[in-house]
Design a protein that fits this description.
Blueprint: H1 12-26, H2 28-66, H3 71-119, H4 123-128, H5 131-173, H6 175-222, H7 224-229, H8 233-285, E1 290-292, E2 295-297, H9 301-342, E3 354-360, E4 366-368, E5 376-379, E6 389-391, E7 396-403, E8 412-419, E9 424-429, H10 435-442, E10 450-455, E11 458-459, H11 465-470, E12 472-475, E13 484-485, H12 486-491, H13 499-508, H14 512-516, E14 525-526, H15 535-549, E15 553-557, H16 565-578, E16 583-587, E17 599-604, E18 607-612, H17 614-620, H18 623-629
Parallel strand pairs: 9-16, 9-17, 12-15, 15-16
Antiparallel strand pairs: 1-2, 3-4, 3-5, 5-6, 7-8, 7-10, 10-11, 13-14, 17-18
Helix pairs in contact: 1-9, 2-3, 2-5, 2-9, 3-5, 3-9, 5-6, 5-9, 6-8, 6-9, 8-9, 13-15, 15-16, 17-18
C-alpha cells in the first residue's frame, strides 16, 4: 500500500527486499560481477588521488630541490598509473553494461508477471480501476523502476564504496584535514535533508498526476468523435488544463528544489576545496606537524594536492547519492503499485467439473473421446465412472437469485427463470434494470449472493470457469477487434478452427459478402479495434467470431443496437441460423429482434415483473405492451 497523504511508498523496506530478490535469485553471478567491477572502479579513483602525492613528493619536489634526475622512475610510475586507469575504465564499462542486461531482464519478468496476473483477475477489478490507471503501471511506473535498477542502484553502491575508500585514504593522509571534510559533510547532510525531502514529496506527486493526465488523454483520444459531435472541445480543454496545471505545479516544485540542490552542492564543494587549501597551506607554512594514523609527519605539497583531489572525490559521490534520492522514492512508490497489481487476488475458481468431447458407443452410452465431435459433456470426477459424463444441452435455471456488485446495494432480487435447451430467452427493460447483470452471472464474471444457478442440473460454482465460459458464446454491444487480419479476428472465437470453419462462420453471420469485397479479403489487416471498418461490419465479424466458437449457449447483448436497418436484417438472418439448436439469451432495445423469442422477460429495478411470449405480453397490456405501443420508451 501507499501512504494516502503523500503517495510515498508505505513499506519501502519490503519493496526494496522484493526488488533485490529479483536480482539475487536470478542474477546472482552477474550482480557479483557488477559489485566487483564497481569496487575496482572506486579503487582507481582513490589510487589516482594518492598518485598525485607520490609524483609530487617522490619525484617532482626532489628534482626541483636537489636537481637529481628521476625521469625514468617517474615515467615507470606514470605507466603503472595508466594501467590502473585502464582497469578503471574497463570496470566502469563492464558494470554499466551488465547492469543494463540485469535491469531489462528484471523489467521483462516484472511485466510478464504483472500481465499474467492481470489475465487472472476478475472482471470486478477492471470495473473498479480505470484503463489509464492500469496502463500507468506498464509505462510510468516501470520507467521509473528501470531507471532505479539500471542507474540508481549501481550509483548508490559506487558512491558508498567510493565514500568509504576515499575517507580511509584521507584519514591516512591527514586527520586535521579530514576533520575539515567532516564539518562540510555535516553541512551537506543538513541541506540534503531539507531540499531532498521537499523535492521527493513533489516528485511523487508529479508521478501520480502524470498517471492521471495520461489516463485522461487516452480517454479523450478514444472519445474524440463524441467530443466533436457534442461540441465539448472547450470543456475538455478546461478539464485537461486542470490536470495539466496540477502536473505543472508538482513538476515545477519538484524540479525547483532538485535544480537548486546541485548548484548548492557544487558551491559547497568549492568552499570545501578552498578551506582545505587554506588549512593545508597553513600547516605546511608554519611547519605544524601533520597528524596521521601513523603519527606526526611533515605536511608536504604532495599531501595537500592529493587531499584536495580526495576532497573532490568525497563530495561528488555524496552529491550523486542525494541526487538519486528522488528517483529512488518515485521508483519505490511505482514498484509498490506494480507489486500491488501483481498481488491482486486472482479470480477464485473452486470448480472441479470439466468440459470434454464425447461420443456415443454402440449401446448409446456417452463416452469421452479425444476426437472433435459435436457432442460436449461435463465430466464430474466426484461420481462413479459410469455416471461421470453429463451431456451439455444448454439447460440454464436460476433459483431465487440475489446479487449486488457490493453488499450495500442489491441489483437483482429473487430472480427465478429457466431456459430449456434450444430456447430463445429475451430480456427487456430500462438501462440499469439488471439485464446484462443476469448474463454476467451465467458465465460467472460475478458470483451470486444468494440462490443458485444450474447448468444442465449442475451448480455452475462446481464447473471450472474456463470450461463454463468455453461452452458460452457472447456477442457484446461494444465490439472488440484486435490488430490483425479479419481471419485472425474471427478465429479468436476458436484458435483451433480451420480456414473452412472460419469461412462457414462468416457465411452464417452474413459477413462473407462484405469480407470478400475487402482489399485482401479474409487476409485484410484491421487497424486497432477495426477502425477501418464500419460499425455494422465490426459487429458482423464479432458475430462470426461467436459462430466459430460453436458454443451450445449464446448470449447476445444488444448485438444489433449499433447497426443500421439493412445490416440488422442481415445480422438477424445470420443470428437466426446461429441460434438453431442453441440456448440463447438476448438483450435488446429493439423489440423487433425479440418478438420470436420463446419467452420474453421484462425487468424493472432488478425484478422480473412480466414474462411470456410476445403475444401473451401484448395481451396482458402491462409494461411490455406500453413499450411495444410506444406509450413508454426504454432509456
Amino acid at each position: 500500500m501507499q501512504n494516502k497523504r503523500t503517495g510515498l511508498a508505505q513499506n519501502p523496506k519490503n519493496t526494496i527486499k522484493r526488488l533485490m530478490s529479483y536480482i539475487i535469485k536470478e542474477h546472482k553471478f552477474k550482480f557479483a560481477i557488477v559489485i566487483f567491477c564497481i569496487i575496482l572502479s572506486c579503487l582507481t579513483t582513490v589510487a589516482s588521488s594518492l598518485f598525485i602525492k607520490i609524483v609530487i613528493d617522490n619525484y617532482i619536489t626532489p628534482m626541483l630541490t636537489t636537481g637529481e634526475n628521476y625521469f625514468n622512475e617517474l615515467f615507470s610510475t606514470i605507466l603503472i598509473m595508466a594501467g590502473i586507469f585502464l582497469v578503471g575504465i574497463l570496470s566502469t564499462y563492464i558494470y554499466n553494461y551488465v547492469m543494463v542486461i540485469i535491469s531489462e531482464s528484471i523489467l521483462k519478468k516484472i511485466r510478464d508477471n504483472m500481465f499474467n496476473n492481470m489475465q487472472k483477475l476478475p472482471i470486478r477489478y477492471f470495473d473498479t480501476h480505470t484503463h489509464g490507471e492500469i496502463m500507468s503501471h506498464y509505462t510510468n511506473d516501470t520507467d521509473s523502476l528501470e531507471s532505479m535498477i539500471s542507474q540508481s542502484i549501481p550509483q548508490i553502491i559506487s558512491s558508498a564504496i567510493t565514500i568509504f575508500a576515499v575517507f580511509c585514504a584521507m584519514f591516512y593522509l591527514s586527520i586535521y584535514l579530514t576533520l575539515v571534510v567532516l564539518f562540510f559533510l555535516l553541512l551537506i547532510l543538513v541541506i540534503t535533508k531539507k531540499l531532498g525531502g521537499k523535492s521527493a514529496k513533489y516528485f511523487v506527486a508529479q508521478q501520480k498526476t502524470l498517471a492521471g493526465t495520461t489516463g485522461f488523454i487516452e480517454e479523450m483520444i478514444n472519445g474524440q468523435k463524441v467530443i466533436k459531435v457534442f461540441n465539448h472541445e472547450d470543456e475538455t480543454k478546461i478539464n485537461f488544463d486542470k490536470l495539466n496545471n496540477e502536473l505543472c505545479f508538482n513538476a515545477t516544485k519538484a524540479n525547483k528544489y532538485a535544480n537548486i540542490f546541485m548548484p548548492v552542492m557544487f558551491n559547497l564543494s568549492n568552499l570545501q576545496y578552498v578551506f582545505l587549501a587554506i588549512v593545508g597551506g597553513l600547516l605546511a607554512l608554519t611547519n605544524t606537524p601533520n597528524l596521521t594514523i601513523l603519527g606526526f609527519t611533515t605536511m608536504g605539497v604532495g599531501t595537500i594536492a592529493s587531499f584536495l583531489q580526495l576532497g573532490r572525490s568525497f563530495s561528488q559521490p555524496i552529491s550523486q547519492l542525494s541526487q538519486q534520492v528522488n528517483s529512488i522514492i518515485v521508483a519505490l512508490a511505482g514498484a509498490e503499485r506494480i507489486f500491488k497489481l501483481m498481488d491482486e487476488e486472482p479470480e477464485f475458481d473452486e470448480g472441479k467439473i470439466t468440459l470434454v468431447n464425447a461420443k456415443r458407443d454402440s449401446s448409446g452410452k456417452l463416452v469421452k473421446t479425444d476426437e472433435k465431435t459435436n457432442i460436449w459433456a461435463f465430466k464430474d470426477p466426484t461420481k462413479n465412472e459410469g455416471e461421470q459424463l453429463i451431456e451439455l444441452r444448454g439447460d440454464v435455471r436460476f433459483h431465487n437469485v440475489d446479487f449486488g456488485y457490493n453488499s450495500d446495494k442489491i441489483i437483482l432480487k429473487n430472480i427465478s427463470l429457466y431456459a430449456k435447451p434450444g430456447q430463445k430467452v429475451a430480456f427487456v427493460g430500462a438501462t440499469g434494470a439488471g439485464k446484462t447483470t443476469i448474463t454476467n452471472l451465467i458465465n460467472r464474471f460475478y458470483d451470486i449472493e444468494k440462490g443458485e444457478i444450474l447448468y444442465d442440473g449442475i451448480n455452475i460454482k462446481d464447473i471450472k470457469k474456463d470450461d463454463l465460459r468455453r461452452s458460452i458464446g457472447i456477442v457484446l454491444q461494444d465490439t472488440n477487434l484486435f490488430s490483425g487480419t479479419v481471419k485472425e479476428n474471427i478465429k479468436y472465437g476458436n484458435l483451433n478452427a480451420t480456414d473452412d470453419q472460419v469461412y462457414e462462420a462468416a457465411k452464417l453471420a452474413n459477413a462473407d459478402d462484405f469480407i470478400q469485397r475487402l482489399p485482401n479479403g479474409y487476409d485484410t489487416m484491421l487497424d486497432s479495434d477495426g477502425s477501418n471498418l464500419s460499425q455494422g461490419q465490426r459487429q458482423l465479424i464479432s458475430i462470426a467470431r461467436a459462430a466459430v466458437a460453436n458454443a451450445p449457449v449464446m448470449i447476445l447483448d444488444e448485438a444489433t443496437s449499433s447497426i443500421d436497418t439493412h445490416t440488422e436484417a442481415l445480422v438477424q438472418k445470420g443470428m437466426d441460423a446461429l441460434m438453431q439448436n442453441r440456448t440463447v439469451f438476448v438483450i435488446a432495445h429493439r423489440l423487433s429482434t425479440v418478438q420470436n423469442s420463446n419467452v420474453i422477460m421484462v425487468l424493472e429495478n432488478g425484478v422480473i415483473i412480466e414474462k411470456g411470449t410476445h403475444e401473451d405480453l401484448v395481451n396482458q397490456k402491462g409494461k411490455y405492451y406500453e413499450l411495444y405501443t410506444g406509450k413508454f420508451e426504454l432509456e
